[in-house]
Amino acid sequence: MTTDATNAEPARAGEVLDLSAAGTRTQKNLHGVPLKPYDLLREGFIVFALVVIATVILSIVFKAPDYPTVNAQGVATAQPLAFVQTAAGILAQDPEISSVADYGPPYDADTGAAQHIGPIAPAAWAKDLFGVTTPIDPPRDLIIKPLRRAATLDPAIGLAVDRYTGATPQQQAAWLAAYRKALATATVTGGAVTVTSGDYGPVAVMMDGMLRLGRSGLLEGAFAADGNNYYPYTFDVTKALLFFSIASPYTDTAAHLQQLGNPQWGIVHETGNYPGAWWLDVYQVWYEVPAIADADNADLIVVVIMTVLFVILLTLPFIPGLRRIPHGVKVYRLIWRDWYRKYAAEARGQG
What is the tally of structural domains in the chain? Predict the structure, then answer.
């Protein structure tokens, strides 16, 4: 601790450290400077204890919700009709169900729906630099491909998929329109969705296959395995999230129970086993501001805010006024309070 008393005699017993073992430069720089022993372990323990106490109190007062994970198996089991309606809507490319078009890059080249703040448009910049890096065709990637994987266990599903993909777009649209209309009066018996008789072509068999795939707990695996067949583990859940991204049991649960209602996925309430992604709290807290949480470009707003704060923190030593804050608040006097209480006045007098 350096004070303005550089000429004071450090003659107080127990307040002057033995620097005989230090280097010549160190001895020269610290000559005449009052020093004191510092117990790093004790201070560290005190800080740790205070943080633990504050964490416990804050977690009790402001505890976050911790709801069970919502996955395809749970939805297909608890809400089979909603699950089938979602799958049929994706296959029909219903914009109210399949929301890939609401994203733009990196899923397609349309930047009209991409988040932007004036000229700040990272998604458009990335598209111009790298193109469409993760092209997604919802009917193909979210329905047809998973069903072809399920067909290895049930050949009837494969035959239905072949018939559907071999039909004209007009015929596919007619089958889907009739089937989706029939879902309005469908019944659920024993976990299976039953519709009245009609000309649905292979769509009914395909949707039954999707439902069974979801109830088996293998749907997310079928999404993740696509394109990653050579890896034993994968952490890419993009397609699983897109499957339930709009007007579905996933987002219904999120909106009503966890307040995750933004139209695009972002950095929001982390739930799950303690401690969760606590390092995202500095990002997540901005989503508690209604004006930000309800904005269509909420994620970009948060990223811009955090970038500005990071730049301020990074350049803090060079910003006039801000760098003098420690001298103004004088926290150092609290840390070294015993020295200031005993010797500061005397040292200033001698200086």
Answer: 1
**For the segment 188-239, what is each residue's pLDDT rounded down to a tens digit?**
998 899 999 999 999 999 999 999 999 998 888 888 766 555 455 666 778 8
Domain residues for the domain of 251 are 72-261
What is the C-alpha to C-alpha distance for residues 298 and 286, in angstroms, rounded to an integer? 9
pTM, to two decimals: 0.66
Q: Which residues of the chain have pLDDT under 50?
A: 1-14, 230, 247, 256-269
Residues β-bridged to residue 188: 193
Q: Residue 90: inside a domain, yes or no?
A: yes
Nearest in space to 252 (alpha carbons), one of 86, 88, 104, 73: 86
Q: What is the pLDDT of residues 249-259, one digit of tens each?
A: 555 555 544 44
Long-range own/partner contacts, residues 125-131 (CB < 8 A, 24 or more apart): 130/106
- CA gap 147, 179 in Å, rounded: 18
Among all chains, which residue has been given the structure tokens 């006039």?
A: 320
What is residue 194's three-state secondary structure? strand
Please calculate the CA angle 216-247-179 and round it to the nearest 5 degrees: 70
* Main-chain phi, psi angles of 245, to 5 degrees: -85, -25
DSSP string, 307-338: HHHHHHHHTGGGSTTGGGHHHHH-HHHHHTHH
CA distance 207 to 184: 15
CA–CA distance, 313 with 64 (Å, rounded to integer): 28
Q: Which amino acid is at 10?
A: P
Residue 122 lies in a domain: yes
Residues with Cβ within 8 Å of residue 65, at least 6 apart in sequence: 257, 258, 269, 271
Residue 74 token pair:
């749970």
Q: In terms of residues, how long is the chain?
A: 351
Q: 211 in a domain, yes or no? A: yes
Which are the contacts of 210, defined by CB distance < 8 A and separation ≥ 6? 83, 84, 87, 143, 146, 147, 219
C-alpha 25/C-alpha 111 separation (Å) is: 61
